[in-house]
Specification:
Shape: globular
Strand order of the largest sheet: 1-2-4-3-5-6-7-8
CATH superfamily of the largest domain: Alpha/Beta hydrolase fold, catalytic domain
Oligomer: single chain
Order of helices and strands: HHHHHEEEHEHEHEHHEHEH
Number of strands: 8
Structural class: alpha/beta
Largest sheet: 8 strands, mixed
Distance between the termini: 56 Å
CATH architecture of the largest domain: 3-Layer(aba) Sandwich
Helix content: 40-55%
Strand content: 5-15%
Number of helices: 12
Length: 360
C-alpha cells in the first residue's frame, strides 16, 4: 500500500518546525518513518510522547526535578504535535491535547526559569497562558507571545529562551481558536481584543513592568501580533515571523490539513465558508496604524505565507521597521532559525531596555 500523501506533506513541511521546537530528530525520523496513513498520526506521536512522559514521572518519583522538567516539557511538545492539525478525529485530538497541557503544567516548576500557569479573564470565561520570569531581574519587561493557527503555549519553550536570557519575561498564551482557547472561542480577525485582555492582565501584576511590553507572533501569529500592535498602544515593540497581510493570500497553496484546521477553528460549516472567513483576517487599512518599532521576518522559500504578503505589512507600517528575508528560509525560516533568532531577541531587548541579571 502506498503511503498516504498527507504523511509526505507533513514530513516535507514540518520537519524543521518540529525539531527546532523540541522534538528530537531521531523521534521525528522514527515516528514518521513508520507511518503509512494520516489516520495513525495522532496515535503514533502520542505513543512516543508517552515514553518521554513516563521518563519524566519516574524522574519526579526519584527526586530529580531538572530531569523531570526536561522529559515532561519534551513530552508536552510531542503530545502537542500529535494533535497538530489533526481535526479529522476530535476525540483523539482532545485526548492528546489534554496530555500536552498536563505534562507542560507538571514541568513548569522544574524549568529554568520556572513557569507559572495563569488565567486571563476574557469574555466571561478565560484564556490560559504561561508566564516565565528571568531569574534575578526585578520587574522585568514582558513579551506577549502569540501562537499561530495550530500553535500553542506548550510549543513555545525554545522561542521563550532567547528573551528570558536577555532579561525579558515571557507570557505565551492560547488565544481564540488556539490551544485551550479552541474549544470555547473561534478564530477572530480582530485579535487585538484578545491581546488587550492580556495587557490588562499584565497590569494586574506588580512583578512585571507595565511600561515595557512587547509582542511576538509566529505564522498566523505573525498577523495577530502586528494587528494587535496597530490598536493596542501599550505595546512598545513588535516582532512578526512569516505573518500574512491577509490570511487568504496563501489559501490556495495551503495544505489540506491546514485548510481543515482553519475550517474547524473558525467555526465554519463548509470549506467555502472557511475560505471566505480567511478574508476577514486582513491588515488592509490597519497596517498603516502600526507606529511602534516593528521587526518582520520571512523566508524566501516560504510556500505557506508568500514572502510578498509579509513584505506588504512592512511597506505599510508607519513606525521604525526592519524587514528580514532569510535566504533559503521556509515558513517561519524554521530551517534557518539561526539567521534571525538572536538578532530579533537582541533587537527586542534594545526596544524594551532589558538587562539580564548578569548584565550581559
Amino acid at each position: 500500500m502506498a503511503r498516504d500523501r498527507l504523511i509526505d506533506i507533513a514530513i516535507a513541511k514540518w520537519a524543521g518546525r518540529f525539531v527546532v521546537n523540541g522534538v528530537p530528530l531521531s523521534d521525528f525520523q522514527e515516528v514518521t518513518g513508520g507511518l503509512e496513513r494520516w489516520d495513525d498520526w495522532c496515535r503514533a506521536w502520542s505513543a512516543r510522547a508517552a515514553e518521554h512522559e513516563e521518563a519524566g514521572r519516574q524522574a519526579l518519583a526519584d527526586g530529580h526535578g531538572i530531569s523531570a522538567g526536561e522529559h515532561l516539557q519534551r513530552a508536552a511538545v510531542l503530545y502537542h504535535f500529535a494533535k497538530f492539525l489533526f481535526v479529522d478525529d476530535m476525540v483523539q485530538l482532545k485526548e492528546a491535547h489534554g496530555k500536552a497541557v498536563a505534562c507542560h503544567t507538571l514541568a513548569l516548576p522544574y524549568l529554568d526559569p520556572p513557569g507559572e500557569r495563569v488565567e486571563i479573564p476574557y469574555e466571561g470565561k478565560a484564556l490560559y497562558g504561561v508566564l516565565r520570569k528571568p531569574r534575578g531581574v526585578k520587574r522585568p519587561p514582558v513579551m506577549i507571545m502569540c501562537a499561530g493557527l495550530d500553535s500553542a503555549k506548550e510549543e513555545m519553550g525554545t522561542n521563550e529562551a532567547g528573551f528570558l536570557r536577555r532579561g525579558i519575561a515571557t507570557l505565551a498564551f492560547d488565544g481564540p481558536g488556539q490551544g485551550e482557547g479552541e474549544y470555547d472561542f473561534v478564530i477572530r480577525g480582530d485579535y487585538e481584543v484578545a491581546v488587550t485582555a492580556v495587557v490588562d492582565f499584565i497590569e494586574t501584576r506588580p512583578d512585571l513592568d507595565h511600561a515595557r511590553i512587547g509582542i511576538w507572533g509566529v505564522s498566523l501569529g505573525g498577523y495577530y501580533a502586528p494587528r494587535a500592535a496597530a490598536f493596542e498602544k501599550r505595546i512598545k515593540a513588535c516582532i512578526g515571523l512569516s505573518g500574512p497581510y491577509n490570511r487568504h493570500d496563501g489559501w490556495a497553496k495551503s495544505t489540506p490539513m491546514t485548510m481543515a484546521a482553519f475550517r474547524q477553528r473558525s467555526g465554519s460549516a463548509t470549506m467555502a465558508e472557511a475560505e471566505e472567513a480567511s478574508r476577514q483576517l486582513s491588515l488592509e487599512g490597519v497596517a498603516s496604524r502600526i507606529t511602534c518599532p516593528l521587526f518582520l521576518v520571512t523566508g524566501d522559500d516560504d510556500t505557506i505565507v508568500p514572502p510578498e504578503s509579509t513584505a506588504r505589512i512592512a511597506e505599510e507600517a508607519r513606525g521604525p521597521t526592519r524587514f528580514l528575508v532569510v535566504e533559503r528560509g521556509g515558513h517561519n525560516a524554521n530551517n534557518r532559525r539561526h539567521c534571525y533568532d538572536a538578532l530579533t531577541a537582541d533587537w527586542m531587548a534594545e526596544q524594551l531596555r532589558a538587562v539580564p541579571a548578569d548584565g550581559g
